[in-house]
Design brief:
single chain, Rossmann fold, five-stranded parallel beta sheet, globular, binds adenosine-5'-triphosphate, ABC-type transporter activity, Bact_Polysacc_Export_ATP-bd, ATP-binding
Length: about 210
């Protein structure tokens, strides 16, 4: 683990670049495509940072780099000893397993002990509003239900840095309002949150600081 140069910085990105290999057809040669180009910024403990950018600007890629899921091709990401977890709609759950089992696995992947996760399962069930669906495989869930499960797990089993990829833009209005209210509580706590959203107004409402990717 590196020594933290300034106490409040938890993660630091320096000139981070990501290139994907892409093919425009099966007989075409793969070409490299720059998804992120020389991105530098620091993430501070306890802040709620919003990331804005048009479609394809590299927002999801940026979150994956911060989470350590993909390694930068250029530059570096320094993590000063914090746990990070990425919550995205497409990722994370095993669709054959139940909501309960997925909640337990997600929590354990974040570093919680099984008992700690189990102690919070009732709260997760209650907040998600999934009721009996918690006993059913996630493949039977709608995308809104998946997001409710993901959001509820993340709220009750928080890592040091929580990355949310468009998670507040799906689901029904009632749940979105409840989720936003819960987010506001996190904003006033020690939790560090990074939020990607297409909605500029949502970012302005919830975040202390915004970074735009172009
Ligand atoms: N695994 C991959 N292989 C090749 N290209 C990719 C891969 N993942 C993303 N890309 C491309 O990289 C660019 C950035 O993608 P990314 O998903 O990070 O953007 P985004 O800002 O999150 O987009 P959106 O707002 O549409 O979700 C896009 O042009 C995308 O097509």
């Amino acid at each position: 683990m590196s020594i933290n140069p300034k106490k409040e910085i938890v993660i630091s990105l320096k000139d981070v670049g990501i290139q994907y290999r892409r093919r425009s057809g099966i007989f075409k040669k793969a070409e490299s495509f720059t998804a992120l180009d020389s991105v530098s910024f620091d993430i501070y403990k306890g802040e709620t940072l919003g990331i804005l950018g048009r479609n394809g600007a590299g927002k999801s890629t940026l979150l994956k780099v911060i989470a350590g899921i993909i390694k930068p091709d250029f530059g570096k990401v320094e993590n000063y000893g914090v746990t990070v977890s990425l919550l995205a709609l497409q990722a994370g759950f095993d669709s054959e397993l139940t909501g309960y089992d997925n909640a337990v696995i997600s929590g354990m992947l974040m570093g919680f002990r099984r008992k700690e996760v189990e102690d919070r399962l009732e709260e997760i069930k209650k907040f998600s509003g999934l009721g009996e669906f918690m006993d059913r495989p996630v493949k039977t869930y709608s995308s809104g239900m998946r997001s409710r499960l993901g959001f509820s797990v993340a709220m009750y089993l928080s890592p040091d840095v929580l990355l949310l990829d468009e998670i507040l833009s799906v689901g029904d209005k009632e749940f979105r309002e409840k989720a936003e209210a819960e987010m506001l509580k996190k904003i006033h706590s020690e939790q560090t949150v990074i939020l990607v959203s297409h909605s500029e107004s949502q970012i302005k409402r919830l975040c202390d600081r915004t970074i735009s990717l172009n």
